[in-house]
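Cross-posting from the chemistry board since nobody answered there.

I work mostly on the small-molecule side, so proteins are not my area. We synthesized flavin-adenine dinucleotide and want a rough idea of how it might sit in this target. Sequence and SMILES are below. Is it possible to get a predicted 3D structure of the two together?
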Amino acid sequence: MGAARDSYEAALAYSQDRLQFGKPLAGYQLTQEKLVNMLLEIQKGTILAYYLGRLKDERKLRPEQISLGKLNNVREAIKIAREARSIPGGNGITLDYSPLRHAANLESVRTYEGPDEVHLLVLGQHITGLGAFR
Ligand SMILES: Cc1cc2nc3c(=O)[nH]c(=O)nc-3n(C[C@H](O)[C@H](O)[C@H](O)COP(=O)(O)OP(=O)(O)OC[C@H]3O[C@@H](n4cnc5c(N)ncnc54)[C@H](O)[C@@H]3O)c2cc1C
């Protein structure tokens, strides 16, 4: 969520600065939709992380809840980083702006914290009672 938040903040700052047709990109509805959708997922993911952290402190956290948090937050963070990359346009492709760096890094996070498929299988087994691992 930290990578997602930095991507969002970089995109927001850029959109306030860059003028097109005499007004900032931030003043266009499509840009605002992107920014608002990013913020919604950042807030939800952060609340989820706090909630799971509290369960862990209370020693009540179950393995499938960890899969739920990792699957959701890393998946959403990658989406946010990619969406944030679009706001600086061509500049977003360069290493001068953080969102695409975060997106690339999050792809390795998405592997080393357990791939999506395995978290999906953990959750699928939990809700159906049927393991589909093999
Ligand atoms: C940057 C980085 C750092 C890492 N650091 C560590 C570390 O510190 N310690 C450590 O132990 N490991 C580490 N790893 C390894 C990481 O844990 C594994 O790469 C990861 O668990 C996936 O295993 P694998 O690469 O063998 O892929 P595989 O298990 O071969 O999986 C390949 C693909 O098949 C899918 N797949 C696998 N099994 C199933 C199945 N039963 N059903 C459906 N789909 C399936 C996977 O989801 C994945 O998409 C790191 C990896 C990276 C990229």
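Reply from a structural biologist on the board:
Welcome over. Reading the output above for you: The pocket of flavin-adenine dinucleotide is lined by residues 108, 111-112, 115, 117-118, 121, 133-134 (CB under 6 Å). The chain has a mean pLDDT of 97. Happy to explain the token format if needed.
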